[in-house]
Amino acid sequence: ASNKKLLVLPGDGIGPEVMREVRRVVDWFDKRQAVRFDLEEDLVGGAAIDAHGVPLADATMEKAMNVDAVLLGAVGGPQWDSLDFNIKPERGLLRLRKEMELFANLRPALCFDALVDASTLKPEIVSGLDIMIVRELTGGVYFGEPRGIEELPSGERRGINTQVYTTSEIKRVAAVAFDLARKRDNRVCSVEKANVMESGVLWRDEVTKLHDAEFKDVELSHMYADNCSMQLVRAPKQFDVIVTDNLFGDMLSDTAAMLTGSLGMLPSASLGDIDETGRRKAMYEPVHGSAPDIAGEDKANPLATLLSFAMMLRYSFDLGEDADLIETAVKNVLNEGKRTGDIVAPGATMVSTTGMGDAVLSALDHLAA
Ligand code: NAD
Ligand code: IPM
Ligand code: MN
């Protein structure tokens, strides 16, 4: 098979720290398994602002459009918070998602047995947890027009964002959720606020229509977003696949992160449509941010980014067995009691970011031996 082209964008804060460990695993696969990577690294976010004055250079965008997959660390940090809104680090990430049309963001929340006690919730609530949040990623209030800050004649200012969804935007992301459900427990819960938002009424309507037309075999339920946030901490195992809009999905996936023990454990895949050549644009990134509070201290948990790379192997390259290998290595390392600070437990061995990378590599060596 031909080499897979990867664009790696470490970004800011803990981004480069966790990516360094993931690069070691990528190299391990490049050497040990059937897959070969052509890897290029570039700047995004604050790092790109410092170098080019913009959070994503056009040349980097161009590269992203032409590779098989993008792997991103995290963007943002206090040193760029006072910049003009349109050139903030986060805009670089949003531009990648929008221009690559990555409308379906898969955020699996899986609780490893060894981490049952790392969650702030009771063990019986989270043990065996395996849910998939499908977050719409290129629409809704994140991109809706009109938007901005206006000066009113009264001297007051007005901040505006618009929640907007079209039929096709809803259907394409719902189809992804139904397809995923068929490979899992065959249940989809669609989440909106149809009780107060017209965009929510349309969302519920279109999801139901698509279900009745093409996915009758999948069990569909509906839930208001406020109730869903409560149900996720009350009894998260009632869910299989959750499909929801951009903003609700952002918030619900951070909630779901804590069910797995730490935000430092949650990976994600952002997928576009399959084009004429059979290729699907895709970006893989952890759910967490640049964690300025621990950046530069070799403390961050690299597993969310590593598991994002595993998702790349599975979803972009159809290398499910290699993805399983990484997931098993992670499981074994956690079972050995190796923990970064965010998931540390009594009796466990605290390791640094680099130490976690070392542990995963030796677990991989062991599995492949
Ligand atoms: P955050 O996710 O960076 O951090 C939240 C908390 O979780 C912090 O206490 C942090 O130390 C901890 N944490 C996060 N990832 C961790 C890891 N891998 N290991 C151990 N602990 C971890 O969210 P925030 O503090 O609200 O945002 C910080 C910056 O990151 C902001 O500029 C924000 O816009 C940006 N951000 C970027 C992304 C992204 O790039 N995808 C996502 C979320 C936030
Ligand atoms: C995420 C982040 C981003 C979002 C920010 C950094 C733009 O919170 O990926 O979850 O809100 O989508
Ligand atoms: Mn978020």
UniProtKB/TrEMBL annotation:
<keyword id="KW-0560">Oxidoreductase</keyword>
<feature type="domain" description="Isopropylmalate dehydrogenase-like">
    <location>
        <begin position="5"/>
        <end position="360"/>
    </location>
</feature>
<dbReference type="InterPro" id="IPR019818">
    <property type="entry name" value="IsoCit/isopropylmalate_DH_CS"/>
</dbReference>
<dbReference type="GO" id="GO:0005829">
    <property type="term" value="C:cytosol"/>
</dbReference>
<dbReference type="InterPro" id="IPR024084">
    <property type="entry name" value="IsoPropMal-DH-like_dom"/>
</dbReference>
<dbReference type="GO" id="GO:0003862">
    <property type="term" value="F:3-isopropylmalate dehydrogenase activity"/>
</dbReference>
<feature type="site" description="Important for catalysis">
    <location>
        <position position="142"/>
    </location>
</feature>
<keyword id="KW-0520">NAD</keyword>
<dbReference type="GO" id="GO:0000287">
    <property type="term" value="F:magnesium ion binding"/>
</dbReference>
<keyword id="KW-0100">Branched-chain amino acid biosynthesis</keyword>
<feature type="binding site">
    <location>
        <position position="97"/>
    </location>
    <ligand>
        <name>substrate</name>
    </ligand>
</feature>
<comment type="function">
    <text>Catalyzes the oxidation of 3-carboxy-2-hydroxy-4-methylpentanoate (3-isopropylmalate) to 3-carboxy-4-methyl-2-oxopentanoate. The product decarboxylates to 4-methyl-2 oxopentanoate.</text>
</comment>
<feature type="binding site">
    <location>
        <begin position="77"/>
        <end position="90"/>
    </location>
    <ligand>
        <name>NAD(+)</name>
    </ligand>
</feature>
<dbReference type="InterPro" id="IPR004429">
    <property type="entry name" value="Isopropylmalate_DH"/>
</dbReference>
<dbReference type="GO" id="GO:0051287">
    <property type="term" value="F:NAD binding"/>
</dbReference>
<comment type="similarity">
    <text>Belongs to the isocitrate and isopropylmalate dehydrogenases family. LeuB type 1 subfamily.</text>
</comment>
<feature type="binding site">
    <location>
        <position position="226"/>
    </location>
    <ligand>
        <name>substrate</name>
    </ligand>
</feature>
<feature type="binding site">
    <location>
        <position position="254"/>
    </location>
    <ligand>
        <name>Mg(2+)</name>
    </ligand>
</feature>
<protein>
    <recommendedName>
        <fullName>3-isopropylmalate dehydrogenase</fullName>
        <ecNumber>1.1.1.85</ecNumber>
    </recommendedName>
</protein>
<feature type="site" description="Important for catalysis">
    <location>
        <position position="193"/>
    </location>
</feature>
<feature type="binding site">
    <location>
        <position position="226"/>
    </location>
    <ligand>
        <name>Mg(2+)</name>
    </ligand>
</feature>
<keyword id="KW-0479">Metal-binding</keyword>
<dbReference type="Pfam" id="PF00180">
    <property type="entry name" value="Iso_dh"/>
</dbReference>
<comment type="subunit">
    <text>Homodimer.</text>
</comment>
<feature type="binding site">
    <location>
        <position position="135"/>
    </location>
    <ligand>
        <name>substrate</name>
    </ligand>
</feature>
<keyword id="KW-0464">Manganese</keyword>
<dbReference type="GO" id="GO:0009098">
    <property type="term" value="P:L-leucine biosynthetic process"/>
</dbReference>
<comment type="pathway">
    <text>Amino-acid biosynthesis; L-leucine biosynthesis; L-leucine from 3-methyl-2-oxobutanoate: step 3/4.</text>
</comment>
<keyword id="KW-0963">Cytoplasm</keyword>
<feature type="binding site">
    <location>
        <begin position="289"/>
        <end position="301"/>
    </location>
    <ligand>
        <name>NAD(+)</name>
    </ligand>
</feature>
<feature type="binding site">
    <location>
        <position position="250"/>
    </location>
    <ligand>
        <name>Mg(2+)</name>
    </ligand>
</feature>
<feature type="binding site">
    <location>
        <position position="107"/>
    </location>
    <ligand>
        <name>substrate</name>
    </ligand>
</feature>
<keyword id="KW-0028">Amino-acid biosynthesis</keyword>
<keyword id="KW-0460">Magnesium</keyword>
<keyword id="KW-0432">Leucine biosynthesis</keyword>
